[in-house]
Structure formats: C-alpha cells, structure tokens
Design brief:
The chain is mostly helical and about 325 residues long. It contains 17 helices and no strands. The longest helix is centred in the C-terminal third of the chain and has 28 residues. It is globular and about 50 Å long.
C-alpha cells in the first residue's frame, strides 16, 4: 500500500472525530462527557482485543497502560474539561496546537528533523482553524486553557510514543489499538463515576449514537490512526488533525443549518491547504526514497498492510 493511500486512510480518523459533536448533541444524553468517553473507549477496546485474540505480554502490559492513558484515558477527560470551561472555538484552537507538540517531541525522541515547512504547516493550519471556529465573544478561562493544552500535549506524547515503541513482533495494529482503548477506558471509568455518578438511562437514540461512537468513531478510527502512525512519520500523521474541526464545521453547516461566513470559508481553505501541504514529501524525503528501498522495523514489517491486519482478525 503506497504512501498516498495510507495517508488517505489515516485521514478518515480525524474526519470521523469531527462528527463527535453532532452525534453527542443529537443522540446522546446531555452533560455526560466522561460516561461518553468510557462508552467510546472500553467496549471498542474489548471488541478489538476479542477480534485479534491477542493479549499483551511482558513489558507490553505497562506500555499499553501508558499509551492508553496518554491517547485516551487522560486525553478524553482533559479535552472535555476544556470544552466545558471554554467556548468550543477556543477549545478547538488549543487542540489544533497538537502538531506543534508532536514536532518537538518527534525531534527529541524519534530523531525526526523539525523542518521549517512542517512547523509552518502546523502554524498555518492552526491559524486557519481559528478563523473557522473563533468568535468575537470567545472568553478565556485559565483552567480550561491549561486543560486544553495538556490534552493536546497528552495526545501528542501518545502519538510519538506509539511510533517509538512500535508493535510487538508478529502483532498487528488491531490488537495494539484494542489494548490502548481498553486501558484508556479503564482509566476513565472511575473518574466518570466520581464526577458524574451513576450511568444515565439510555433510549434508542442513545444506543444508536453509542454504537456509532464505539464502532466507527473510536474502534475503526483509532485503528486507522495507530496503523498510520506505524507507516508514516509522527508529524505527518498529526498534521491530519485539523481535519477534525473542519469536518465538524461542515457537518454543522450541512446537518444543523449553521451558517458559514466568508471568513470561515477562507479559514477552511487555509487550514485544508496547510494540511495537504504538510503531507507533501520534502526534497530530502524524495531523495531518500530514490536511493533506499522501503524498509520496515520488526514491529512494522511483520504486518504492514490492511488486508493482512483484517485477515488476522478473522483467525
């Protein structure tokens, strides 16, 4: 599978996450973000573990716990705290700062050179997102801002560490995704019980919404996201993140009748253009591709295409 196809498949993850606000507002119980986070993560994680029929071994028990906490268990609650204390636009802009955290951490931990074009793409994309989601009435709250920045840093660190640790030999991304989602869900459950109390009563719409969130928005999306991390650079993957708020804006316009102003349309164009620009290989990458044959680490080479992953799931 070539780089363009892998990038397009990975991009489906943030596009799916962009539907979260619509599904939560239209189908799910109000004011239960932590319960929703647990319902997204834990059932999806257990399902993927059951499909892969592989459990962690040795150090991968604690590695899965660390990655699950960074990518899910800490990220979800902090993200929801930020969203509750800040206008949605401000929270989205803080989230779009995630690529900058990844650029720095990838240079430090992975040896990925922080190229000017990558930093520029991340900054321009964040600027475009701000044009789409910020309003003149937006107000800042210190706790909300800190929560938003830490949530972005948590997801950024999880992305980089997922790339650094790779996967155990002979284990595909389906299993590793299941391990992380399960660990993250187990972290969220006690927090949700403490903050929100007993689970709410669920109707048919809620079951439909949670089914979508579990299977598509979380299970399939995180599988594609972590699989993309294994085959692309960490910075390339994280630069796809702005597609999430852009998708949310498009869904709000198409499904909820929310108007898009000329400024928002310009911002969408800028953010999308920066996202595409961030995926284009630089001169150094092109030169390297011409002189080197594709290579895979043990963690990546044993299972590096989608058909093999799904084939293992059926065994």
């Amino acid at each position: 599978m070539n780089r363009v196809t892998t990038t397009l498949l990975t991009a489906l993850a943030p596009i799916s996450w962009g539907s979260t606000y619509f599904v939560a507002s239209e189908l799910l119980p109000a004011d239960r973000p932590l319960f929703t986070g647990a319902m997204r993560a834990l059932p999806a994680g257990l399902l993927l573990v059951a499909l892969s029929r592989v459990l962690p071994k040795g150090a991968w028990w604690w590695k899965s716990a660390v990655l699950g906490t960074l990518n899910i268990g800490a990220f979800f609650p902090l993200l929801f705290l930020s969203a509750y204390r800040l206008p949605g636009g401000v929270a989205a802009v803080l989230g779009s700062a995630g690529p900058l955290f990844v650029v720095g951490l990838a240079a430090l931990l992975l040896g990925e050179r922080a190229r000017l074009r990558t930093v520029l793409a991340a900054v321009v994309a964040a600027f475009g997102v701000s044009m789409v989601v910020l309003t003149a009435e937006a107000k800042l709250d210190l706790v909300g801002v800190i929560a938003g920045l830490v949530s972005s840093a948590s997801m950024g660190a999880g992305t980089v560490m997922t790339k650094r640790w790779g996967r155990p030999e002979g284990v595909g991304p389906l299993a590793v995704t299941g391990w992380q989602l399960t660990a993250g869900g187990l972290v969220i459950i006690p927090i949700a019980a403490l903050v929100e109390g007993a689970p709410p009563a669920l109707d048919g719409k809620a079951f439909l919404g949670y089914g979508y969130m579990m299977l598509i928005n979380t299970g399939a999306a995180y599988f594609l996201w972590f699989r993309g991390i294994g085959q692309l650079t960490a910075t390339s993957v994280t630069l796809l993140g702005p597609l999430s708020p852009l998708t949310a804006a498009v869904i709000g316009w198409a499904a909820l009748g929310q108007a898009l102003t000329p400024v928002q349309l310009v911002g969408m164009t800028i953010a999308f253009g920066a996202t595409v620009f961030g995926q284009l290989p630089g001169r150094a990458a092109k030169a390297e591709a011409q002189v080197q044959a594709p290579s895979f680490s043990k963690a990546e080479g044993t299972d590096h295409n989608l058909s093999m992953d799904l084939g293992k799931a059926k065994v």
